[in-house]
Amino acid sequence: MNKIHQPEVFTVYAVVFFTALLAPNAVFGGYQIQGGLLDIPVAYTIENTEIDIGISSYLIVSQPINVDKPGKNFREMDAWITLGLLDRIEIGLRYYGPKTFGGYAKAKILNETSRIPCISIGMLDISPNTNINSWGDNASNYYHNLNYSFFIVASKDMEPILKAPIKLHLGVGSGRFVGAWRHSYPWQGIFAGFEWDVNNYIDILAEVDGRDFNAGVRFNLPYKFTITAGVGEIEQFWWGGPMATDPDQPGVPVYDEYDQPKFSISVQYLLGPLLTGAEQERLMRLKNRIERAMERLKQARDRREASEQELKRLRDILIK
Q1: How far is CA 43 from CA 127, 213, 255, 318, in A?
Q2: From the CB of residue 295, how many other CB atoms can be counted at a distance below 10 Å?
Q3: Exposure pattern of 53-86 as b/e (b: 16+ CB <10 Å)?
Q4: Where exactly are the structural domains of the chain?
């Protein structure tokens, strides 16, 4: 959840620096997904009737030349909207292009306790569009289909255990979480993340998303605004490189944009909850009454089963 505090001066300067550095050069749709850290989902969900609105984009370090699609559009930016329901469900929509959208859904199946992690299941890029994914609607040949990417993820606040402001995330997924490059083979759908709350308004993020290693910093600003800046596919700094040379320009390297480090930035705003405090309290009272009624029903069922067992015991005694 976003933390609303007045930022210190250095935080404001850092936000301005990242925005000024990245925004003018932004290309493609960003890899930062809804309901997660950078490119991995987390188990936590936003509150009932809260709405998360965000946009993201990224800059590729080496200007790629795509020999398969020389006319490819390099100026995409994606956006999303997510609605929280019942404090345990998120549903949303992501915009990749004028004709390309992807649905999103996540449901919490286990609440977090001091010892037990929060666990959620979900799916990304629910869409009839062909092979949409975190690199935008033009990425149509990313080795395998990334639509309908299912995931299950566990998140745990380690403060009660380690006495440190750290959250850990671990999950497994299909589609976009499955690596296709040789260095990704050992992971095959397993993703994990680390989140360090440095203070009330800065979080340090690091993750392996099933394919790549990503890291970034999140700024929690007043009025429920969040800015996240990060670097994706960090391993490509030492494992990446040109895939070929340009046939029309001998000696000029050709890069695959899918296998290049990417500087990314996103801006989010959390609206709500839309229900008033009085309405929230009314729904909470209703929820409590339902829970008490269910408990009484369970007790009545247990008493009935005990009576039936006693009746059976007496019947057996009389028959003997």
Answers
A1: 22, 20, 35, 57
A2: 10
A3: ebbbbbbbeeebbbeeeeeeeeebbbbbbbbbee
A4: 9-274, 276-320
Tokens 């007496």: give the residue: 314
Pairing of strands 51-60, 262-271: antiparallel
Strand partners, 120: 108, 153
Please, which residues have CB within 8 angstroms of residue 101's CB and are 6 or more apart in sequence? Answer: 93, 94, 95, 127, 129
pLDDT tens, the chain, 320 aa long:
444 444 444 444 444 444 444 333 333 334 678 889 998 999 999 998 999 999 988 766 555 444 444 434 344 578 899 999 988 999 999 887 777 788 999 999 999 988 899 999 999 989 887 666 555 444 444 556 678 889 999 999 999 888 899 999 999 998 888 876 666 666 678 999 999 999 989 999 999 988 888 999 999 999 999 999 998 888 877 776 655 555 566 665 555 556 678 888 899 999 988 876 666 677 777 878 888 888 888 888 888 888 888 888 888 878 76
Burial of 4 (0-12, 13-18, 19+ CB in 10 A): middle
DSSP-H helix ranges across the chain: 9-22, 159-162, 236-239, 277-319
Pick the CATH number of 9-274 from 2.10.110.10, 3.10.20.600, 3.40.1160.10, 2.40.160.40: 2.40.160.40
Enter the tokens of residue 130.
């062909």
Q: Is 171 exposed, middle or buried (0-12, 13-18, 19+ CB in 10 A)?
A: buried
User: In whole angstroms, what is the distance from residue 312 CA to residue 238 CA?
Assistant: 74
**DSSP codes of every residue in 269-310:** EEE---S-HHHHHHHHHHHHHHHHHHHHHHHHHHHHHHHHHH
